[in-house]
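Below: protein 1.
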Amino acid sequence: MCARPRSDEKAQAILKAARACLGERGYAATTIAEIATQAGVSRGLLHYYFKSKEELLAQVVRAGTDAHAELLEPMFARSESADDLAEGLVGAVRAIVESDPTFVNLSMECWTLAHESSLVARELEDLYRQLRDAVCEGLQEARGRGIIQPAIPLDALAALLLALTDGLVMQFLIHPELAADETIWAGLEMAARSLLGDGA
């Protein structure tokens, strides 16, 4: 797993520049020199914080994932029914797709790069484990309150819910017009609702 980036201003400036450059040009077309220039630092200082472009991409995606994952706990907490929860889950995914397309694109670049980079593969493995655990914890709390009664184990349900959303987002990258199709979002909500089951 990558070391977490330092929290000082230089490290954050580098991450911000990496997000901008990678988001605009893509991983393959972006150079370390361009990121360093955008961040206003030397290549040497950039490498002091981040060893490679692979690590920069992974850390940018980790930061975005962590930020979006923070929305899960309050979303689960305010849901009062399986319908609320399904609507909240789909709404969260839609908000990310519509408000942060750069994060979506870079996440998919990570998936591609994971086949070539053990560093990125390990980072993605860790990120998804944490994300599944967070969703599973929220589902456990919802089941404890009696608002859902899924027919399958919660860890499997968490993986399936993430698979549904990831697969749909991947299609949006190929066919962006699908993201504007309300029937697709309604269908995703229906699928999530079905998996969650009826509460007691």
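Below: protein 2.
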Amino acid sequence: MIRITTLILLMTLVGCAGMGVEPWERDLLAKDSMQLTPDYFDNFYDEHIYFSKEASNGGQGVGGGGCGCN
């Protein structure tokens, strides 16, 4: 039983040893298509339109109603 527990513990600790970004992978991760929001302005306008139409929400972080004028 102790051997199995030790083996499971060692497998758990060694399993995370290979995580990380290698230098040759960084160029792929730095591309705009890999970002959470590839185009900042498209995302900004989409969020503005969405939250402006939600009258009960009042916009994203600013006061206002559902008229879309803020």
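The helical segments are 2-15, 26-29, 40-53.
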